[in-house]
Amino acid sequence: MRRPGPEFGPRRSRVHGVPLALLAAALCASPSLAAAQTEPTADPKPAASEGAPPPADAPPAPPTTEAGKPADPPPANDGAEAQRRAEAGDVKPAEPKAEAPKAAEPPPPESGFFLGSYGRVGAATDFRKRPGRDADIVARGSRLDESPYFELDVQRQDYWKTTGATTRAVITLGTSAPLFHYNADFNIRMAVRNLFLQANNIVTKGLSAWVGSRMYRGDDAYLIDYWPLDNLNTMGGGLRYDFANGRTFIAWHAGLNQPRTGFFSQTVTRTPALNQVGATSVNILDRQKFITSLKASHIVKVGETAGVKAVFYGELHDIPSGQRETEVKGTFQTLPADFGYVVGAQFGAFTGRDASHVNLFIRYAGGAAAYGEFGTPFQLAPDRTSAGARELWITLSGNWETGPLGLMAAGYFRSFRDASTGLDYNDVDEGIIMARPHFFLSEWGGVAVEASYQAQQRGVRYQPQAAPGQPIPAPTNDPVMGGLFRIGLVPFLNPAGKGSYSRPQLRLIYLLTHRDEGARSMYPKDDVFSLREWEHFFGVGVEWWFNAQTTYGG
Q1: Is 230 helix (H, G, I), strand (E, B) or coil?
Q2: DSSP assignment, residue 70?
Q3: 517 in helix, strand or coil?
Q4: What is the CB-side half-sphere exposure of residue 244 using CA atoms within 13 A?
Q5: What confidence tens digit (pLDDT) does each residue in 310-369 have?
Q6: How many CB atoms lie within 10 A of CB 92?
Q7: This prediction's pTM
Q8: N or C end of the chain, less CB within 10 A?
Q9: CB neighbourhood size of 235 (10 A)
Q10: d(CA 447, CA 493)
Q11: Beta strands of 368-419 (E only): which ranges?
């Protein structure tokens, strides 16, 4: 086997610096040597001889004279004398030193098409012959009773030898419930979740750039199906630089959106140009939200596989001013510019084995950003802006595995206040603590138990009912508090083998939920959830992910 380096090129065979052609002529001229070549030996292995090439790792032989005696070494610094003696036959030229083998270059990235998918499907009942429903009262609860959802991810990667860059085009289609086999409706709810192209190692190694429409996310808290720090759906572009250590990166992005609400756009009918017959549509209000984000991440290695991770993150949201027509035609109202921001951080640790890790996320949003990237500000401040709105998330998530046991856990506290000064139904404090222990009975699967407690408090202005024959009481702003406890038993099969995150996973699911009076009061009148103290959920479910490649932003 040849080693990499100059030996791959054309080379002449030599023995101690003597061409093989000269050696063959000498052998033919010596009868004794020729006879020796034809005599069989007792050892089937060829014996080493003076004319045999030395092993590759043998030290170079000292130079010899024609009489076979070692030659005098050439003067230490007289290269001309050494060359003269070599040309005269006194000394055989020294074998040129082989260059040290070069480090093997990594192969270029593979070009071609790649296919990925995420999906979950379930069917359930409440034991009263009604459909099983998501029973959470908080914004982010259990994944076990979520509705069906599916993504198909198609990617095309190409390596460009001329520049050394790699491009990857990503198209992701997402569909959600209801499905045809449930409601017999042949329509489909579909969205383009990704449509962008990213160029890696562009201009310089470690620099990547992307343009398009994409899900732009970091680390998630799996049990509550949420990305607590950065979770943007954006149309724009961005840059990312990965440092040579492979553990540090900085990412920046900027994008635009325009949710379909009257806060961002208004279309009215007008007479066509030059007073032509008919009517045409004119955009009176037509403003976009500009969002930009900056993220820095660094990992400190601990031992061979473990490490700790720190992430710092920020966003800016900017909405320009605009005008909209009031109910009186020809009368216009000015909408002021609005602004928002997000600051946050993530601190985590991981073992590098069995997906064991823990992450703490802290995120604070103010102004327009408190309503989310697609949110329309409501309950505004007196100046008709979102100034004063705020949202705080503190989230803890992790997973631990050892032998046949695994434990996934997550919890968060959220506090949201809209821009209005008084409390209302949209002002909420809520939280959840959840755990899902796994007991792996074999590589094929096992049993999981999921338990959670969730609570929510809403600031509500409402009108209490009057007692018979009594005057109507005054309205109250007292907050309303509700709580819910759930426990579930989930036998599961893992065709891909043992692991908390091993997918696909087929499940048999039973969940039992208890709501207190406050929780029941948070549902509309005559909703069965406002009537029932206990709720059952029994069904089957499946979840899978087959990733072509991570397409999030970091």
Answers
A1: coil
A2: B
A3: helix
A4: 2
A5: 999 999 999 999 999 998 988 999 999 999 999 999 999 999 988 999 999 999 999 999
A6: 17
A7: 0.79
A8: N
A9: 16
A10: 9
A11: 390-402, 405-417
